Amino acid sequence: MNIPQYLALGVFSSYFLVILGLFWLIYQSLPPPSPEQPKLRIAAFAALAIGSLVHTWFYMFKYISWSFVNFESQDLYKSDIVIERISSWLLNTSLFEEAWASVCVGALNWWWSEQLCLFTVGAWTVFLATKGPQHRVKHLWAYMLLGQLVAISVASNLFYIALLLSQPSPLPKDSRANPRLWLSVLISLLSVATSPFTDERTFLPNLLVMHALLILPLLWTPKSPSPFSLHTSTLYLIIFLISAAIRARTVLAAMVFFNDSPLATAWNTLHSHPAQSSIGWDVVWSTLSFITWTGLCSSGDGQPSNAFVIPFMFLASSLASIGVTAPYVLLPHNVRPFMPKTE
């Protein structure tokens, strides 16, 4: 084997080592258990984290296997040594770009994948950046990076557990988002909006910008407020409006390809490729987890009654996606449009 092949093996191995390191960093930073903590709720989110990890990574390993077999079918000079064949595959295959291309190219594929992108760059980033400091959760960037490397559903459930294990400080009524946060979110939303229009030259840079910007506002929290900060409620409202517009365009584009059975078409697209299955089920698990958090743990935050929110979330998220409904539900009740008063 040559040096580039060793480097390819090293990068691939490092990917899994970084994942293990992030799990350990998050685990050791969690507060110790106490009798006052809601054990059943913590157990529920732990079950969701394990379920989403096993399910999404079942398909991720299927994708890795598919990529290797696909490469070998086109390689006319296979070595008899397995490690050399693996290193040759890694050296000549861009797994990250290949996986994302398979879930972003095509109106139906993007109909699935955009849901996770909108949720991640919008509501979840702001949720991390605001709830994390309030609950004194350490290493917020690690949750975002873990979500990008493993699954957003896994990272979000671990974050919900961290919130339940900690004692929150009072959230200021005038909660604000600093410029680093709202600029990162808005530019990332622009990146999501332009994804269907990228080509071979711009696809990967656009994707990397989206991923990198989400970690930036979570690295540290400014101690002094900025005159250019936005009210958090204003940012959620902006995210909701932009996400709704982006989502409407994507749904209209996908409707052309839906046959007489939209559910069957969506299901077939979900299982059309292992990478699509992984990110598609990540959408489902992330949606279920956020609805569970909303139903079990959002009382006292100015939210309407769960008797209204839970059915609304299931119905609206199925039609519009969690990327649209999450920022809507996270809005304070007094600035939430279109919702009847339930309190």
Whole-number total of structural domains: 1
Radius of gyration: 21 Å
Distance between the termini: 68 Å
Helix/strand-derived category reads mainly alpha
Please tell me what the overall shape is. globular
Major sheet strand order: 1-2
The major beta sheet can be summarized as:
2 strands, antiparallel
> Count of DSSP helices?
14
Write up what this structure looks like.
Helices cover 71% and strands 1% of the residues. The chain is mostly helical and 343 residues long. It has one domain. Helix 5 (107-134) runs parallel beside helix 14 (322-330) and helix 8 (179-194) runs antiparallel to helix 9 (203-215). The longest helix has 36 residues, at 39-74.
Short description:
The chain has 343 residues and is mainly α. It has 14 helices and 2 strands, in the order αααααααβααβααααα. Keywords: Membrane, Transmembrane, Transmembrane helix.
